[in-house]
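Entry type: protein chain
Record version: 2
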Amino acid sequence: MAMEIAKSLGKFSLGMGDRFAQQGRAQLAACLRAREAGVEVTPVWNKSHREHSIVGSVPAGVRREADAAVAALGWTRAYFVDADHIRLETVDAFLEASDFFTIDVADSIGRPPDEASLAAFCADAGDCGGGFGLTRESVRRIAARYLAAVQEAARIYRRIEAARGRGAFITEVSMDETDSPQTPDELLVILAALAREGVPVDTIAPKFTGRFNKGVDYVGDVAQFEREFESDIAAIRVAEERYGLPAGLKLSVHSGSDKFSLYPAIRRVLAKTGAGVHVKTAGTTWLEELIGLAEAGGAGLELAKEIYAGAFEHREELCAPYAAVIDIDPAKLPAPAAVASWDSQRFVAALRHDPACPGFNADLRQLLHVGYKIAAKMGGRYLALVRACEETVSRNVTANLFDRHIRPLWLD
């Protein structure tokens, strides 16, 4: 199916990761349910170079999965395939299959720009209109920290543009995988710099205050997040008007799955401001596959236990690449020998993200969230069982995305 970027990303969009490319139809079913309930949510299938490397997949497989789901369910709205967290050294593999590019420049934050570039930007930017308390001095200080990252984003963007053509893809700039959050005044300076570099950014993913750990709820001050989120939207609107960035530029919330305590706050701000948002829900679908296997019982449950045992044994190796976005207390991880005696109900209770359930174990959930490498090593054995348990797996995948994510974000 030809990719049609003339279609809009829309006001609300959902990044849907699928580690093993098995749940495209179940994921899209959640967006269909949203439409039936009165809200348009654009599906975006995303997968990173790291995930492809671990699973042994290729970007073209994500495109095939998305196209097949769209054809099977008769989806007639826009949809996209996201090259997630790409860098200059990894972007080429995604150029043909993707029409959404998340340009990750977090590693370039703090790298000093050359003095001539810094001086030229500051001469043009001045005090960025003085909004958010900015002065010439503070603009220079912020630019000194972020300009090199913006220039790296521009280099990657131009590589994509040369291959795909201007206006032929969605551009997201990601700065979330870093230690310090970006404040609204910093966001405005970053957007001014992106505009000056000619990067027509459609979504931007800053690092917000608080912890956005994989697969579990937000850790931090929700009221502070709400104020910051609203101020970030205000900065975006100033940047749209002042610097000619694309209309509809919106925030992107990374590691956005399972942040249940934030969804009411996000919804309030969206209602108040009329803004849109992109929410990425990467690994939550993989966990729903495990839940579906465990619910099915029999061989499915035994395989889920085997995966947990493998993740427990290799936990240091599995956790290392995700150290910035997980908090696991090893003392709270049950021993595999104990898990081996669990029935379906107990395994599902421990893994399903229901904080009100006495059996829920956030540490086990985070470990399994990063433990998909264990399933990947099983190859066809894992995939065959997922397909055999399709009914329970797909039911959980759809319900999770619609009931726990789409509904509280955009419907309730």
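Comment: The mean pLDDT is 96.
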